[in-house]
Specification:
Helices cover about 15% and strands about 35% of the residues. The chain is globular and about 50 Å long.
């Protein structure tokens, strides 16, 4: 039998078969669950950061670097902690260094322009520059010695000088950007005591004649990290 010619009946069966193929259940697309929308961004303002308020009742003192050229005879020979001689220097100058920590000599010794006093071992040593705690270089009108309860790096802003500061010096004290980077030699037993470094003395009889050498009581101070 030849398939070349197909009659109407054969065509009907084929059509019916094609139609029935579409009658079966169609596979369903996998269901998709929509992800919940992200929560809306908060528009509430962030809480303010805590800050330290200014406090009064502070005691401010200053320390400085004595300069030998402002001190005369008599002279005294000194040696370092190992007993090596460090030359002769003005006795009054050495007395000040034993209080202030460092002093600039008239003539450099072994390439060093400063002598220092070791408070722990009670002997002399040479230095290239005055330093404070942890050998931090002292910065005039910036370095501050404070009790160990106050962290290094604490910024100190003097808002009011209190009593005992010359009117020509107080604006300089208040404008300076003081930073705690040294410790008081006696650890400042008064926790509201700051010792401000004012650099090298610049005249004879500095402590009695210079208005930059002062002790202030009742100062107002703002501390910040």
């Amino acid at each position: 039998m030849s398939w070349r010619g197909r009659g109407p009946w054969t065509c009907s069966l084929l059509s019916l078969a094609i139609v029935c193929l579409g009658c079966g259940a169609q596979p369903q697309s996998p269901s998709r669950v929509a992800a919940p929308p992200p929560p809306p961004a908060s528009t509430a303002p962030s809480p303010p950061q805590p800050s330290r308020a200014p406090t009064g009742g502070w005691r401010l003192t200053v320390y400085y670097t004595p300069v030998e050229s402002y001190h005369g005879p008599p002279q005294q020979s000194i040696s370092d902690c190992a007993g090596r001689p460090l030359g002769q220097h003005a006795r009054d100058f050495l007395d000040k260094v034993q209080i202030e920590g460092f002093g600039r000599v008239v003539t450099a010794v072994q390439g060093n322009s400063y002598v220092g006093w070791d408070f722990d071992h009670h002997c002399w040593f040479l230095a290239r520059t005055p330093v404070g705690a942890d050998d931090r270089p002292l910065r005039a009108w910036a370095s501050t010695a404070a009790p160990s309860t106050m962290a290094f790096g604490t910024a100190v802003h003097v808002l009011g000088c209190g009593s005992g500061v010359d009117a020509t010096v107080c604006p300089h004290v208040e404008a300076a950007a003081w930073t705690v980077d040294d410790r008081c030699s006696d650890d400042c037993s008064d926790r509201q005591h700051l010792d401000l470094y004012i650099g090298e003395e610049d005249q004879p009889d500095f402590e009695d004649q210079s208005p930059k050498y002062f002790e202030a009581l009742g100062a107002v101070v703002l501390l910040s990290a």
